[in-house]
Amino acid sequence: QGQLVESGGGLVQAGGSLRLSCAISERTFPFDMYTMGWFRQAPGKGREFVSGIWWNGDSTSYADSVRGRFTISRDNTKRTAFLQMNSMKTEDTSVYYCAARAFFSGDFYTGSFRSWGQGTQVTVSS
Questions:
Q1: Could you tell me the sign of the dihedral formed by the alpha carbons of 107, 112, 115, 119, in that order?
Q2: How many CA atoms lie within 13 A of 31 on its CB side?
Q3: Phi–psi pair at 110, nearest 5 degrees
Q4: CA–CA separation, 35 vs 26, rounded Å?
Q5: Cα(72)–Cα(74) distance, rounded to whole angstroms?
């Protein structure tokens, strides 16, 4: 369902902020028809859900570990989703992946998504 490209990862100190971007290049559907999700995977661990935004109404969902610190948003004109990460903690260190699925209204499980980005490394130092 389209190529996804993440950007914005890097090294940040604990308490700092980063903003990740995920651009989708494929144009079969308008961008606002895509449900977008952010997941992360730390070394030796499984991929876990971080945040998501549904296509129909822009409702959002967050993992308990990031709620209140991270904010997901989208710019439909730029075909890009964002993840603003504030008050970052060392345990946020992971490779972050975005995922997309058109017309998807279900829950944010890794198996729900067919299109994934290549991942971007986020490292939070103490």
A1: positive
A2: 18
A3: -60, -35
A4: 14
A5: 7
Nearest-5° angle of CA 115, CA 2, CA 63? 40
Helices and strands, counts by H and E, the chain: 0, 11
Confidence of residue 94 (pLDDT cuts 50, 70, 90): very high
For 56, the 3-state DSSP assignment is: coil
CA 33 to chain centre: 16
Largest Cα–Cα separation, the chain? 43
Residue 63 exposed, middle or buried by CB count within 10 Å (0-12, 13-18, 19+): middle
Following CA atoms 112, 38, 45, 119 in sequence, which dihedral angle do they give, to the nearest 10 degrees?
A: 110
9-40 pLDDT tens trace: 999 999 999 999 999 987 888 899 999 999 99
Distance CA 15, CA 90 (A): 9
Report helix, strand or coil for 43.
coil
| Residue 101 in tokens | 């699925």
Contact 44/88 with Cβ under 8 angstroms?
no
